[in-house]
Amino acid sequence: MDLRELSDEIESISQRYADKIGIERDDTWFLLKLQEEVGELTQAFLMLTGRARQKGRTEEELGDEFRAELADVVCHVLLMARHHGVDLEAEVERKWLAWKR
To answer: Which DSSP string corresponds to 50-87?
Structure first.
């Protein structure tokens, strides 16, 4: 699956969620939601690495939570890029993969 296909699927899920809960997904929402997910990733990382209370979770549960939060961050980056009309594949090519040469 490429980023555009993944973005299409994530957009559909996010829109259904917003419709169900009554959320307006505007510029501010996309940024704040991404920030929220980065915060959750930070918390999961701190717990996984023993820098925060583990709240009785096992190492396996902490690892699962960390991986899930990474996925949330990636999905919200894709949603924000889509909302702003950013072609992430092209931007990764321009910004990162240019260094391959």
So the answer is: TSS--TT--HHHHHHHHHHHHHHHHHHHHHHHHHTT--
Residue 101 and residue 99: Cα distance in Å, rounded?
Answer: 5
The domains found in the chain, sorted by start residue, are 3-100 (1.10.287.1080)
Distance between CA 78 and CA 59 in Å, rounded? Answer: 29
pLDDT per position as a tens digit, 15-38: 999 999 999 999 999 999 999 999
Q: Write down the pTM of the prediction.
A: 0.94
Q: What is the pLDDT of residues 34-50, one digit of tens each?
A: 999 999 999 999 999 99
- Among 49, 20, 50, 37, residue whose Cα is nearest residue 78: 37
